[in-house]
Amino acid sequence: MSVFQPDSFIVASVSPSPNFDERKDGRPPDMMLLHYTGMKTGDEALQRLTTQASKVSSHYVVFEDGRIVQCVPEERRAWHAGESSWAGETDINSRSIGIEIVNPGHEFGYSDFPLRQIAAVISLCKSIITRRGPISADRILAHSDVAPSRKQDPGEKFPWGLLSESGVGHWVRAAPLDLEGSGIRPDARGEQVTRLQRTLRSYGYGIAETGTYDDATRDVVTAFQRHFRQARVDGVADPSTLLTLRALIETRPAPLP
Ligand SMILES: [Zn+2]
Asked: Which residues face 202 on adjacent strands?
């Protein structure tokens, strides 16, 4: 496959992947999806993302030392989201730019993301926004947000707060853990569960309003916590989780024109 020109000057090198096709609806991407690689080394991950048989790819890979490698041109549709859903859309690959961040992940020794790696992720996201035009802050998401029952990445160590301080992504400081009240527990039923599901759905999560705190609901609450209330990730909608969710909804950026 042919080497292409990188989309940005901050890209250190190009490692072309054969795993891409055309964006399905012809619209430019208006989402960024952040992942961790979840393999022992970054080189191993890059190998997989550029090998035809794997049928996976991403636009970018960001190494621990901040080095950025591009594998698929932004114009094309990379294969990183898999079966997923956000705000009623299910072809997330067509809608998004995928960024793989090198980290062994939960399976191989989940580690803190080095600051220089995060700085590179921030620069990359900013460069995408600057070149392509605005991407709404609340559409810069975790893989786990769009595939809560399948994916955990980039996980609860990913510093979304730092990104947001740099103007990348929508985030609020999480409410403290030790709030009074009982919250909503798995297996609960009724109007309060429906309301929770409706609220999560209104933010974009792919969740049905069943009125029962079922496994799918638990998975979505867990994904929400991994992104927005990282101090405890247990799938229980405790008062801190509910308050953080409310603050997030209230501070949501206005839709782009
Ligand atoms: Zn992922």
From this structure: none
Q: Measure CA of the first residue to CA of the last residue in the chain; give whole Å.
A: 38
Q: Calculate how far, in angstroms, residue 191's C-alpha sits from the geometric centre of ligand 1.
A: 33
3-state secondary structure of 99: strand
Report yes or no: 32 and 143 within 8 Å, Cβ to Cβ: no
- The rounded Å distance from CA 237 to ligand 1 centre is 24
Segments in 133-231 forming alpha helices (H):
143-146, 160-165, 191-203, 215-228
How far apart CA 133 and CA 141 sit, in angstroms, is 17
Query: Is 183 within 8 Å of 229 (Cβ atoms)?
Result: no
What pTM was estimated for this model as a whole?
Answer: 0.97
pLDDT at 1 over 70: no
Active site residues: 100
Report pLDDT digits (tens) over 17-39. Answer: 999 999 998 889 999 999 999 99
Residue 74 has a CB neighbour count (10 Å cut-off) of 19
**Beta 140-142 vs 96-101: how paired, if at all?**
unpaired
Please report which helix (H) or strand (E) contains residue 20, including its range. strand 20-21
Helix or strand holding residue 206 (H, E): none
